[in-house]
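name: query_chain
kind: protein
chains: 1
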Amino acid sequence: MKPFSISRAFFQIKWGTVGAIGLLSGAVALLICGAWLSVEFILDPRSVIWLNQYLPEGSKILVVGSDDLRTLTELQAALKKTGRTTGDPLLLETNLKAAKKSSDLLLPVLTRRESCDLDCDRVTELRVYRPILESHRRGKQDYLQLISQLPITGVDESFVLAPFAEAGGDDQGSTRALPLTTLQRFEDKAPSQGVWLNLSGQRSQGDHSVAYGEIVHYNPGQTHLSILLRWTSPIGEAPVWQKRAKGMLSTLVVNQSIGLEPRFEAYQVRARKFVPDPLQLLPVSLTEPALDNGAFVDALFLARNGLWSTALEFLRSVKNRRVGWSANAQAQMDLVERHAQVTKSQAEKPWANVSQQVLVNLVDGRWAKATQVLQASPNDRDEITSLLKSDSGRLWKRISALLRVNPTRQDVQTWGALILMAQQDKPRAIAWLKKQPQESPASRAQITKLLNQIDAL
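structure:
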């Protein structure tokens, strides 16, 4: 009979216990993994499609639906059967969970327009796909999983032509949708939240090549596409992101200028309570002053009536006092300054035509300078008179606005009287002049003298 070894028995028991614990832990892990896969399969069968590579034929997971997993070639072939094609895909690199980088694929779906000679393919849908099985299909195309889609209908013609109608044009446009044909991603100065896209089209309007479009935002966290803004530009310029100053919101600027009249629309990126896409683009308005300050209120009133440079002087004066200045006030000032830069540049540029030189000075609110040009050009006064006679109101609204803020401005009263004399007659011009408050009796006499000189020619 062999002696019993306590040490040997102890190790036999210990290793047996460890093995049992290991088997139990493995079973629990498999149970948890199986439960997780079951939940994933119930919520989204496509999320566990990768298991097919380990399953035998006949046991593979089947996913049925219009957005079955397909390669890009298969997708293009399926669209072709319905008379549609795809545009150039855009890779949307995003950080979904900060630790994992994903490259979603944006695919524009195109439909060909009938009776068309140029830019015949219009974008009718945007789709976002997520590549899967990348590491398991070396040398082959990835399968693509549809994660977001957005129907595109185009932009109403009446909206596209609205700036022309507001400037006095006859063509109001119709409700028919104009096609969107080009898709580009904003890169320079665009906000870092999500992906910003510009979907655009073009059409001719007289001598103008008008650009129009929609600003599309993709929120990768919720895999959501949304249209945040429709825009139009009579001079054919695409919207641009303004360089963001410290403490300011990201701002998108649309140029709607026509002729010598600058017009810019600015839109700021702001938050909203909408889980799929918590961002929106809201316009910077000049109708609601950001500060309850008399000079600030007057400045925006002058700006709304086209006196951009004068308004900017008022705003700078208020800002220099450094009392209650805010980010909203700065946004309004930035918009005014953008307009003022245009009118200032026009006024400082040499013009071969004297009447145009007078006009650009008046548009910029350089009343005294315009008077100097008038007095220095006796041979061109008929031409200048014709200019004033044809004014449809853009000069008169500037005169009325400034005289409301500063009623005794002699240089402004001079041009008010000149316009009335050109459009009506001298007696009515003098009658209007007599109703205006004067800094001194000599002021009215000087204006009357100039009226007599012009009338005598």
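note: The two ends are 146 Å apart (CA to CA).
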